[in-house]
Amino acid sequence: MQWSLVIPLKPLSRAKSRLADTAADGVRPGLVLAFAQDTVAAGLACPGVADVVVVTDDPRAGRELSALGARIVPDTPARGLNAALAHGARAVRRIRPGVAVAALNADLPALRAGELAQALGAAAEFPRAFLADAAGVGTTLLAAGADRELDPLFGPGSRTRHRGSGAAELLLGGVDSVRQDVDTGDDLRAALALGVGPYTTAACAYLPAEWPP
């Protein structure tokens, strides 16, 4: 099965406020962009992924992610994460009707293409399926087959909401890089322990010299 990935990204200046204790205001946008660059690069390298669409209104992110090979879709609904994802899925299917679509977080700097392929392969067995985040509370991946709407329900506590919506939960081992999103300094430490991609590695050079402790 071939998948289109839809990745949402807030304007960089407003993203990841919970990283304020780790990355200063002047550093955080570059760090957020690096997370997205490593996520997009791994997605494009994943077997079974036909294309990657990023929904964003950030000009810098649009330029940099387009240069990697992503297609940029403006966030015209401007009504938050779930509206952006639904909009991105519709944009994909206008061009490729009936394609399987998967929503993926933009903050997966340790993402491995092979592990993403494993998760998408498992998702292909269900009409809709999702993967919980490393904390076991949120969601990092939501997949919908060719004949199903994505129906995204991301946000705090989304694991429960996606399960309640009828999506199958993917109970997989060996896909830690697909689960490890980054919202806090502790999350970033966990991602670094897994091994982040080259963009995040470079961006972390601008963190305080004493970090990570």
Notes on the structure:
The chain has helices at residues 28-44, 59-68, 81-95, 113-123, 158-164, 176-179, 185-194, 198-203, and strands at residues 3-8, 49-55, 71-73, 100-104, 128-132, 139-144, 168-169. The protein is α/β, with parallel strands linked by helices and 213 residues long. It has a single domain (3-206), classed as Alpha-Beta Complex (Spore Coat Polysaccharide Biosynthesis Protein SpsA, Chain A), CATH 3.90.550.10. The protein has a 7-stranded mixed beta sheet, with helices on both faces. Helix 1 (28-44) packs parallel to helix 2.
Please describe the biggest sheet, giving its number of strands, its sense, and whether it closes into a barrel. Answer: 7 strands, mixed
Q: Provide the spatial order of strands within the biggest beta sheet.
A: 3-2-1-4-6-5-7
CATH homologous superfamily placement: Spore Coat Polysaccharide Biosynthesis Protein SpsA, Chain A
Structural class: alpha/beta
User: How many extended strands?
Assistant: 7
Q: Give, in order, the helices and strands.
A: EHEHEHEHEEHEHHH
Remind me, CATH topology? Spore Coat Polysaccharide Biosynthesis Protein SpsA, Chain A
- The first-to-last residue Cα distance is 43 Å
| Overall morphology | globular
CATH architecture: Alpha-Beta Complex
